[in-house]
Automatic annotation (TrEMBL):
It comes from Saltatorellus ferox. Coiled coil: none annotated. Keywords: Signal. InterPro entries: ConA-like_dom_sf. This is LamG-like jellyroll fold domain-containing protein. It comes from the Bacteria. SUPFAM superfamilies: Concanavalin A-like lectins/glucanases. Residues 1-24 form the signal peptide. The lineage of its organism: Bacteria, Pseudomonadati, Planctomycetota, Planctomycetia, Planctomycetia incertae sedis. The keyword Ligase does not apply. It holds the Pfam family Laminin_G_3.
């Protein structure tokens, strides 16, 4: 069984704090529809009309994965007709001001086109006033995916069903949209699969999209044509609407669609630090990721170490204190946790990187190792994770560390 040396163990207990933090991608706004609340951005959101925040969704829960709440926004059923209004424009600060940066969004949608009175789908979100700047997405007809993004330089990009894919009808489906300003394109993922990549100038506009994107009205959620008249009320369900700074990757989209993670997992309270680590024998620094929910009550978190030497033993370490100690106990790497450090070395927890140079461990947040025993992770606590692993340099046995990740649990 691989173990840390006595010197390394002593360093784990006594080293001083010296952090080197770098922010990870952050979810900016998230509505799970357990209430009208924006759980992340805190934007004041109210009901207009009588949409149904259903505790017993007509269509069932959108997914059964991390953070599922059994709540969805239902419009046009059970007598409910209306929408939510999020004060991204009239509130105390201008929210959803993406400027010239890339951004992403995700949501679950059910459109019951077979019973819609006007055969039109619902507008998922809209903070664009007339021909001003902002973003808007809707499903105008069955199987269509319509997205509009306008900037303050006069660029108008309207994706009126130009995406070459068909959205499912009468079932929950997951959508991730990415506005990649660097590549000047929009990418769409349906149920975790990349289904379309379209240039930002797809509508033939002669004005390139070089300006800023920000709202020019409060954002309407789950509405079409104001959604208050009989013709506009839609039979639809909406769940887990979220907006992110930066770009959601293909693996992010797949994880969201599978229910392995929810929007709270993407940067909300997850911070990488001590990065990059010291290169190992592969020539590349090892890295660690924490994937799952930052809600402590969900007890859904997996640690993954990657870019390791093949067939190397290792294990994860954890502490509520960050640190930075170079080459502790003769290791080649940097120890990035301090104070009371716990080690995941229980039955089945010591890992081997195998042929892929990676290993993963689903951790039980109710049984987090510390020097004095197992303790539960509580809401409001921050825990720091790192991986230690064996290595070989010039035929000599050595060890190294990955970088580290800090998770602030809610």
């Amino acid at each position: 069984m691989p173990t840390l040396s006595t010197a390394v163990t002593a360093s784990l207990i006594s080293c001083a704090v010296a952090t080197s933090a770098a922010s990870a991608q952050t979810v900016l706004h998230y509505w799970d529809f357990s209430s009208t609340a924006d759980l992340v951005g805190g934007v004041n959101t109210t009901m207009v009309g009588a949409p149904d925040l259903s505790l017993s969704p007509l269509y069932g829960e959108a997914y059964a994965g991390s953070g599922a709440t059994l709540n969805t926004l239902i419009n046009g059923v059970n007598g409910g007709s209306g929408y939510l209004l999020a004060e991204v424009f009239s509130g105390p600060t201008l929210e959803m001001d993406f400027g010239m940066n890339s951004f992403s969004f995700s949501y679950w949608l059910w459109d019951d086109f077979a019973t819609d009175g006007d055969a039109r789908g619902g507008r998922v979100f809209d903070n664009l006033a007339g021909t001003s700047t902002g973003i808007q997405i809707a499903t105008t007809l069955a199987n269509e995916w319509n997205f509009r993004v306008d900037d303050d330089n006069g660029a108008v990009n309207i994706f009126n069903n130009v995406m070459p894919f068909v959205t499912p009808v009468d079932q929950w489906y997951h959508v991730v949209g990415v506005v990649d300003r660097g590549a000047s394109e929009v990418r769409a993922y349906v149920n975790g699969t990349l289904t379309a990549t379209v240039p930002l100038d797809n509508n033939g506009t002669t004005t390139p999209m070089t300006g800023s994107v920000f709202p020019t009205q409060d954002m309407q959620i789950g509405v079409i044509n104001d959604g208050l008249n009989a013709g506009g009320a839609q039979t639809q369900g909406l769940d887990d609407l979220a907006f992110y700074d930066g770009i959601l990757s293909a693996s992010d989209a797949a994880a969201l669609a599978s229910g392995a993670v929810n929007p709270l997992s993407f940067g909300a309270g997850i911070t990488r630090y001590c990065s990059p680590g010291v290169p190992n024998s592969t020539g590349t620094p090892g890295s660690i990721d924490a994937i799952g929910s930052v809600l402590a009550a969900d007890n859904n978190m997996t640690l993954t170490a990657a870019s390791l030497p093949t067939s190397a033993f290792g294990f994860f370490i954890v502490s509520q204190t960050q640190g930075m100690v170079n080459q502790p106990g003769g290791s080649l790497g940097v120890l990035c946790v301090a104070g009371g450090v716990g080690r995941y070395v229980g039955a089945g927890q010591i890992q081997n990187s195998g042929a892929t140079g990676t290993f993963s461990l689903p951790i039980d947040l109710t049984m987090t190792p510390t020097p004095t025993g197992l303790v539960p992770v509580m809401s409001g606590e921050t825990w720091n994770f790192q991986a230690w692993h064996r290595d070989s340099v010039g035929g000599s046995a050595v060890s190294n560390f990955t970088d580290a990740v800090s998770v602030s649990f809610q």
